Amino acid sequence: MRTYELVVVYDPRVADDEVAALTGEVRNLLTAPGGVTITKTEVWGRRRLAYEIGKVNEGKYVVLFFAAEDGRAPVAEVERRLVQNDRVLRFLTTRTDLGLKRAGLPIPTEVVPEVESEAAAPAAGAVAAGTAVEQAAAAEPAAEQADEAVGEEE
């Protein structure tokens, strides 16, 4: 199972309901061929860009986290459609399981699909207990403190 992260920056002049519709189209493109599970969708909202793109200083950010069976992700087709869309300023697709593999961290084998209802959301979060990336980020400060403690004993 390969995990991916897709960040899409929409033009800020696009209405919020249209951003939701465009994100729904991207979700449909990802899940249409089968073998792909959307694990989480985050709408970051309107943010300032690091540099001006086409005389625009802000963008509406949406992040999609998804998992695909080996070789089944339709990333090329989704990226082709995003390039053609005038309402998309930028996008970036990142394969996140490669970073975990290189760091020597365990790659999550179980994918918890995104929960649609708000009432079930806390239960799904309790089952997931954070992604491997979040767990690794939480473990880093503890490792640094342990290294500092070893340095103090000497």
Structure overview:
- There is one protein chain.
- With 154 residues, this protein is an alpha+beta fold.
- The protein has one domain: Alpha-Beta Plaits, CATH 3.30.70.
- The chain is 42% helix and 31% strand.
- It is built from five helices and four strands; from the N terminus they run E-H-E-E-H-E-H-H-H.
- The protein has a four-stranded antiparallel β-sheet with strand order 2-3-1-4.
- The protein starts with a strand and ends with a helix.
- Residues 117-129 have low confidence and may be disordered.
Output the helix-strand order.
EHEEHEHHH
How would you write the strand order of the largest sheet? 2-3-1-4
Number of helical segments with 4 or more residues? 5
The counted number of beta strands is: 4
N-to-C span: 44 Å
Query: What is the level 1 CATH name?
Result: Alpha Beta
CATH architecture: 2-Layer Sandwich
Describe, in short, the structure shown.
The protein has 154 residues and is α+β, with helices and mostly antiparallel strands.
Keywords:
globular; Alpha-Beta Plaits; four-stranded antiparallel sheet; alpha+beta
Topology (elements, then pairings):
Layout: E1 2-10, H1 16-31, E2 36-53, E3 56-68, H2 75-84, E4 88-95, H3 96-103, H4 121-128, H5 132-153
Antiparallel strand pairs: 1-3, 1-4, 2-3
